[in-house]
Each structure stands twice: as structure tokens, then as C-alpha cells.
Amino acid sequence: MNKNRSKYFLAFLSIILAVFYIASCSDLDPNIPPPPTVLVHGEGVDSINSPNWHGNLVKEYNYNLMVCQSCHGPDYSGGLVNESCLNCHIYSQGPENCTTCHGSLSSNAPPKDLDGNTSPSAPGVGAHQNHLYIGSLGQGVFCSECHNVPGTLFTPGHIDSDRPAEVIFNGYRSLTATNEPGTSQYDPSLPTFEPDPTFDYDSLTCANTYCHGYFKNANLDNKPVWNKPSTSQCGSCHGDGSYPLPKRPPEGTHPNAGNCYQCHGGVVDQNLNIINPAKHIDGLLNLYGNDINF
Questions:
Q1: Residue 11: which H helix or E strand, with range?
Q2: How is the chain split into domains, by residue range?
Q3: Is the Cβ–Cβ distance between 95 and 76 less than 8 Å?
Q4: Which residues contact residue 110 at a Cβ distance below 8 angstroms, ignoring those fewer than 6 apart?
Q5: Hey, which of 28, 63, 169, 255 has its CA 20 to 30 A from 95?
């Protein structure tokens, strides 16, 4: 009898507790907010016109795409979130392609620059394309002639260093020495002109480079402004700033003759048009059809 009464009592107690539990939950339900939606990126992450565009986020992280890899996978193919970056970043190396941050599909060099500028007046754009691809005055310049080009995005000295980009003159077109002893045009009355190239980040000017006038009979003081191509005309390198006639005696040794094509017809015509860019600003002097050291 006692056992039966205990059994009924426990059953009754269980029912009371269940009712109390259900009633308590029912009372609390209206006050419990729905679980939050967890978003790593804000709305508009895939829209370039949105403040939440992922390009802005990458920039905040100083282009360290390891942050992206932690969710999208080492090869950006989806990873933990199963969202591939390669659907849009379709070129070699995916998001790590050079043109993701600077340049265009036709060139790794600006425009655009890291801030999205496309005008040559912007320091990040400047005369990049004039040096690389236009080629109307001389051969294109390789990126490595002015910069230490990284092998990958994560090469030391690339994204882990402060802006602006370092200008390091590595190419022969900035370093070519002229009037060296032993050359056919050597003049002992003149020194050997050995360029010591520098770039001034405040004035955005190059100085003491062979390619902009630091050579025999040229305008040694020429300092072209990086984002003002008009400061680099023929006369600015070898002339008085307006006419491209190299220095004559007593400052130099060039003959007092202005018909350039008569001696340098392999490079220039009678209207001072460069007719063979490959033979201009190449470290040699084209004289009567021959390329010589001078």
C-alpha cells in the first residue's frame, strides 16, 4: 500500500514539474530574442560600390590575404565556408595576382594604384605606363629596373613594409657610365660621368640617372617630376631645356651643329622624331649607323 502511494505521489510530482516547466518556458518565450545571424562580412561584400566591399577589408589588413585563407582555404577555393574566391578572381594565383591590387588586365603596373587612382597626376600612378609600354622614345623599362619585384605576395619587403614603394635603381639604363677611358669617344678633358641615381619622395623627382640626362655632354642637373611627364622632354636630357642640342665647348665637346639626323640618322629624323626607339636611351651612342660607347 505504501509502495503504491509512493508511486502515485512520484507520478503526480512529475506531472506538476512538467506543467511548471512548460508554463515557465511559455512565459519566457516572448522575451527571448531569436538567435543572431552571424555574418563575417557586412551586406554588400561583393559590391565594389558598397562600404562593406571586401576590397576595403583587405586594404584594412594591409593586403595580408592570409586572413582570407583562414576561411576560404589556402587556395581560396572555398575552405571552411565553402565560398570560393576563384569565381571572380579567375587569373593566375587567384586573389594573389598582381593586378588584384595594382595595375590592370594588360599590365601589373598602375594605373590603377593601391588607392584606385588612374590619373597620371596621382603619385601612385605617375609615369608608370610611359616607362613600361608606350615605347615611342625608347624601349620599355622592366619593373625590376626601379623596384625589387617580389616573387610572391608574401615575399619579405612587399606587403610587410610601409608605403610608398621603394624606388631602387637596378637597371643599366639608370646606371650607364659615359666618357670612360678606353672608349672610342673618350675625352680626357672631361670626367667620367658615373650616375648615382636617387629618387626624392617629397618632390617626386629623379636625379643623376643616365636615362634622364646624367651622361657626357648632357643636362646633368635634370630632375624630371614623376607625375608631370611634361618635365621630361628631349631638351631636358641633352640640351638647354627647350632644344635638344648637347653641350658644346667650353662646357662640353659636342659640335655646334643642330641637324641631329645628319650624325644620328639611325635614331632620329630631320624633324627630331625618334624613328628607332630601340636605339634611344640604350646606353650607347648611335653615330653614323654604329652603336658605340661614348
A1: helix 2-28
A2: 36-96
A3: yes
A4: 102, 103, 117, 118, 124, 125, 126, 128, 129
A5: 169
The answer to whether residues 132 and 144 touch, using CB atoms and an 8 Å cutoff, is no
Query: Contact, 203 vs 225, CB < 8 A?
Result: yes
One digit per residue, the tens of pLDDT, for the chain of length 294 reads 444 444 444 444 444 444 444 444 444 455 555 544 445 688 888 898 998 999 998 988 899 999 999 999 999 999 999 999 999 999 999 999 999 999 998 899 999 999 999 999 999 999 999 998 767 788 889 999 999 999 999 999 999 988 899 999 999 999 999 999 999 889 999 999 999 999 999 999 999 999 999 999 999 999 999 999 888 888 899 987 778 889 988 888 999 888 899 999 999 999 989 999 999 999 999 999 999 999
Identify residue 263 by its one-letter amino acid code: C
**H-helix or E-strand containing 286?**
strand 285-287
Contacts of 29 (CB under 8 A, 6+ apart): none
At 192, phi and psi to the nearest 5?
A: -80, 130
Which residue type does 261 have? Y
* Contact residues for 254 (Cβ-Cβ < 8 A; gap 6+): 217, 245, 246, 247, 248
Please, which residues bridge with residue 287 across strands? 290
C-alpha cell at position 102: 595594382
